[in-house]
Amino acid sequence: MPTSGPSRTAVEIASQPACWRKAAETLPQHRTALPSRGERVAVVGCGTSWFIAQAYAQLRESGGHGETDAFPASEFPRGRRYDRVLAITRSGTTTEVLDLLGELAGSVPTGALTADPATPVMRAADAVAVLDFADEESVVQTRFATTALALLRAHLEAEDALPAGIRTVEEAAGDAERAVSAPLAADITDAEQFTFLGTGWTYGLALEAGLKMREAAGAWTEAYPAMEYRHGPISITAPGRVAWAFGAVPAGLADDVARVGGTLVAESGTGADQLDPMADLIRAQRLAVLLAEAQGQDPDRPRNLTRSVVLTATPVTVGEND
Q1: How far apart are CA 22 and CA 169, in angstroms?
Q2: Cα(291)–Cα(269) distance, rounded to whole angstroms?
Q3: If the chain, 322 residues long, is cut into consecutive pieces of 10 residues, what is the mean pLDDT of each piece?
Q4: Are the C-beta atoms of residues 201 and 59 closer than 8 Å to each other?
Q5: How far apart are CA 260 and CA 289, in angstroms?
Q6: CA 245, CA 268: separation in Å to the nearest integer?
Q7: Is the CA virtual torsion 214, 219, 220, 224 positive or negative?
Q8: Cα–Cα distance between 278 and 23 in angstroms, integer?
Q9: How far is Cα 86 from Cα 13, in angstroms, rounded to an integer?
């Protein structure tokens, strides 16, 4: 593990406020790849990209922009009719995404968000939004995922389709600046287990937080819709364990966490003193790096992971989310 200076992953995490602002600024050049108002849309991805797809689908549909579903690329329902399919793929090389786009060619308009303009997705999709300024050297995906969601949020904002209570991208970037530097409390950094919770669009963020902690630090994490927490998952919460909520906390949940001796983390939401939930995800990313380094692991090179999953006729190494 590197012994001097911050990890590459930490540097990329800290760059997110600037990346989100640039995504909003460059929106006009990416519109052809994005859904139009009223279209019935499926958003697909793998790993982190699938979780970002889930967050966007909830935002778009609840904002009245159009019916939106999210699927892992490998589970796309072939018999269902959509007006557009939007793929999210950092590397532009993920087998399941490319196979799906190839299968859909000529039958439904397709778009893609990617970080690399020199990859096969440029030919596989009808239109591509290239966010190369958010590309990453580290295997673990952080800033590309949130920047893709920032672009999609900026599009909804420009179309007057942001759901009530959702901050603008500029406001979220301001919160992100706080999130990249604010200290993480000891009852978080010293915890042995983390359960991430979300409601609506923030459930996708909860899933991504859990994945990031597992990837970078091998941490014991779980993720659930917030209202499902009391239907079984609360049994794992105890002293020294954290329930981390993205966005609004359901009534009574704080008391339930306290009753079993857990620590509730709830610093994001619509309140003036709360973070945008996407900025709160940055705090979970930082925690993953901190825990990895505390265990002597290299967060830039997590075990068992590669940048992209490219399948061949023979078994391949497990890949990172894309």
Answers
A1: 10
A2: 25
A3: 74 98 98 98 98 98 98 97 98 97 98 98 98 94 98 98 97 98 96 98 98 94 97 97 97 98 97 96 97 88 60 48 64
A4: yes
A5: 28
A6: 8
A7: negative
A8: 14
A9: 25
Amino acid at 75: E
Q: Model pTM?
A: 0.93
55: amino acid identity, one letter: A
DSSP collapsed to 3 states, 194-205: EEEEECCCHHHH
Pull the structure tokens for residue 188. Answer: 């978080």
Strand order in the sheet with 193-198: 221-225, 193-198, 241-246, 263-265
Answer for the pair 284, 212: CB distance below 8 angstroms, yes or no: yes
Residue that the structure tokens 């982190």 belong to: 48
Residues whose CB falls within 8 Å of the CB of residue 306, separated by 6 or more in sequence, listed in order: 139, 317, 318, 319, 320
Comparing CA positions, the residue from 169, 150, 138 lying closest to residue 288 is 138
